[in-house]
């Protein structure tokens, strides 16, 4: 087996993981561009249609630990292929769903594979590269999510507008088939390095206080992202005044920002993980808060859509790597739990945005409500970093006592 130093800087297997992430990201995010069509066709409110995002996210939250446990003794490549098959079948069920309830069930089935795919994928990705490129490897895999927003979501919104929302899920099913073939072809088979731990032992690794704090930071940070992103279509059309046809191009701008932010966050986290983590949370809160004052300006909202994409996804690689570093054992489970945390944040954000719209000040207040959540995440992150420093201070104090006359 070749040493890490002789491996190519970006192995083809990483791009296979990116392909799977693209398919999963498209089905997760595309519903944001279809809320109005789903709402009208299935005779539910916009806020109720938004719960399809919460349902998916909660399915990831529940499915990540369960499927990770169920697939823990499978080779990583076999697990990835099985998860993509579940994903594809779930999208077929979504395309055929005759009612809102059946669509929700189909979305939950689809979501079950999500957390474990990214959990296993992140471990595979970091194992393909040298130590100083682990955050970048994670960001390359997650580029599939960002490209899904850049290309898949606008394309899905366009399909939904012209051919009905079901056509979008048929297209995503085809993407799932293609991604499965690419993963089967390019991801290398395990070479004996996969030594499964007992599930109880993996859970002990998750119970480390710093891992739990890392998961909480992820929940709060991404709750802020999705409190805004879930309702971006009605905000753009009903508050800012864009035509329905303008949503896809603006989602394209947002997706471009996501790609830039994701890769930038990975590169910065490779150099200084803690500062990247704290700085990205600060930037996210500032952009969300400032967006409140841009809601009634079309040029400003286009610019802020790009900025929102950049700062929102600059957090992904540092959040994922922080949890992986703090997990003393069971990294696949820790990684899966962090994906579950991302999606719990998505669910909380979508729910909070719906509350603000239905029972609070309305669509125009979603941005400032969203800005509060990464600020809470920042407070938890600062506390976590201070905990890191305590052993060092205790060691320094002990050393001073030993050398004192």
CATH superfamily caption: MFS general substrate transporter like domains
Domain tally: 1
Class inferred from helices and paired strands: mainly alpha
How large a portion of the residues is in β-strands, by DSSP E?
Answer: under 5%
Low-confidence stretches: 1-7
CATH architecture group name:
Up-down Bundle
Distance between the termini: 54 Å
Whole-number average pLDDT? 84
Q: Might you state the CATH topology name?
A: Growth Hormone, Chain: A
What's the count of strands?
0
Helix content: over 70%
Given the C-alpha coordinates, what overall shape results? globular
Instruction: Return Rg in Å.
Output: 21 Å
Largest sheet: none
Helical stretch tally: 16
What does this entry show, briefly?
With 405 residues, the chain is mainly alpha-helical. The chain has helices spanning 12-29, 35-42, 46-70, 76-96, 100-127, 134-163, 165-186, 199-206, 209-229, 232-240, 247-271, 273-291, 298-313, 316-326, 331-359, 366-403.
Structure overview:
The protein has 405 residues and is mostly helical. The protein contains 16 helices and no strands. It has helices spanning 12-29, 35-42, 46-70, 76-96, 100-127, 134-163, 165-186, 199-206, 209-229, 232-240, 247-271, 273-291, 298-313, 316-326, 331-359, 366-403. The longest helix is centred in the C-terminal third of the chain and has 38 residues, at 366-403. The protein is globular and about 50 Å long. InterPro entries: MFS, MFS_dom, MFS_Efflux_Transporters, MFS_trans_sf.
